[in-house]
Amino acid sequence: MVIYKTNAELKEFSEQRKERAAAMLDSIVPEKVDSTTYIVPSSDGSKRYTVSHIDTYSCDCPDFVQRCKGNGLYCKHIQAIILFNKLKNKVEMDDFDVDSVMDEKLCPKCKSDKILKFGMRANKSGTKQRYGCSACGFHFVLDPLNIRNIPPTS
Ligand SMILES: [Zn+2]
Ligand SMILES: [Zn+2]
Fold first, then answer.
1. Using the 8-state DSSP alphabet, how is residue 152 labeled?
2. Fewer CB within a 10 Å sphere, N or C end of the chain?
3. β-strand 139-142 against 115-123: which pairing, if any?
4. Of the bound ligands, which one is closest to the alpha carbon of residue 132?
5. How far is the CA of 42 from the centre of ligand 1 (A)?
């Protein structure tokens, strides 16, 4: 087992996995097995890891077993579940329609560009893409027509 000594190393390790987790949620959807168990497919779909959450999170991937466990760190699969649940809970609380025109795909709340596609939402006017901000957890739906293409000024 690798032991990480400095806080800087620990922080970097954790940040890397958070970023990978956010990228993963663009292409995969974790599967909830029961209230404490999730299945997280690998990005290419070739493997499935089991993340369980009883008192703390654990995962059966080699990264968690060899590097995270014992260092108080989480692998990208666990980070993905944490982020997934954070976004999921937010949806029910404050799903928000962005009616104003957005120039770019930035979070309307914190202006972060860490926007994830988070499923579709159907309502009377059609189906809209739902987005979640992985920086602040804010959720919104956006009609693709509302994304303005700015013509180049000359
Ligand atoms: Zn894992
Ligand atoms: Zn945000």
1. P
2. C
3. unpaired
4. 2
5. 9
